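Lab notebook, entry 225. We have the chain sequence and a SMILES string for ribose-5-phosphate, and the next step in the workflow is to get a structural model of the bound complex before anyone spends time on docking refinements. Request logged below.

Task: model protein plus ribose-5-phosphate, output structure tokens.
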Amino acid sequence: MTADQEKQQAALEAVKFIKNNMVVGLGTGSTAKHMILAVGDLVKRGMNLTCVPSSEATQKIALELGIKIVDLHEIDKIDITIDGADECDENFQLIKGGGGALLREKILAWNTKYNIIIADSSKAVKKLGAFKLPIEVIPFATKQILNFLEAENLQPIQRTKDGQPYSTDENNYIIDVDIFKIEDLKALEIKLLKVPGIVETGLFLDTTNLIILGNESGPILKYRN
Ligand SMILES: O=C[C@H](O)[C@H](O)[C@H](O)COP(=O)(O)O
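Result returned:
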């Protein structure tokens, strides 16, 4: 089974949790794309769903499929959000934001009753951090934040695209840092979010309810108690 087949398998398993009349949060990325396609099929078959996209890219795909999209301010709470991850560990902690969508994704996750993460099996790790942690920052403060992260030994690298600073849907920049040696991720999160100009980090430490991993002999479902 290829990684992409595992992603699709996890996505198809996850959409089974979607029921009629739900408000559904749509994640971002290659795994989430399989899920959005499956949500499009549910809608075509007559299911009434209202969806909140986590990025401009996801919104575009969803609209092309005829999925009803609303802004977050138009609804109160999201029933279920299905999203991908760059890494997940055994404690339901995640690194997200490889595709730059971490800020809106985290806002959706925070405002969702039930969060499902879908991934191919390579995303499940013993310890987070082989994947660099994305941090979203305000452009005005980028230089000083890079200096701060350097002093913290986090080996910051500002993300670029076509030789220019990478810009998020919220017109911010991304700095990727190395957290592999960090033991206390909660303390790191608190420290980072205290820095003026750091808007959000790609650490999702306590929002996930269920992780679905693609697997050769059928999807693996890990429920958080
Ligand atoms: O910013 C991007 C998101 O956090 C994605 O969900 C994450 O990067 C995983 O993407 P993919 O499913 O393409 O590996």
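Notes for the group: The chain has a mean pLDDT of 98. Worth checking against the assay data. Residues 30-44 form the longest helix (15 residues).
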